[in-house]
Design a protein that fits this description.
single chain, rod-shaped
Length: 68
C-alpha cells in the first residue's frame, strides 16, 4: 500500500519511468497554461466591465429593429 501511495508503478522499467516523467511534465505544462489563461480571462473581464461602464451613460429610449 505504501508503495502505491508513493507512485510505485511496477518496478524500475525505464519505459514506465520515462512515461511517468513525461506525463508529470505535461501536467505541469497544463497547470501553467491554466494559470496563464485565468489571468488573461481576469484581465479581459476587467476590461469588459470598464468598457461597459462607458456605455451606461448613453440613453437609448427604444432599441432599433434588426435589419432583415
Amino acid at each position: 500500500m505504501a508503495k502505491a501511495l508513493l507512485g510505485y508503478v511496477g518496478g524500475s522499467d525505464p519505459r514506465v519511468l520515462s512515461e511517468m516523467r513525461r506525463l508529470q511534465q505535461r501536467v505541469q505544462d497544463l497547470e501553467s497554461e491554466l494559470i496563464r489563461m485565468q489571468a488573461e480571462n481576469d484581465m479581459l473581464s476587467a476590461a469588459a466591465r470598464h468598457d461597459g461602464s462607458m456605455l451606461d451613460g448613453i440613453d437609448v429610449p427604444q432599441a432599433e429593429p434588426a435589419l432583415t
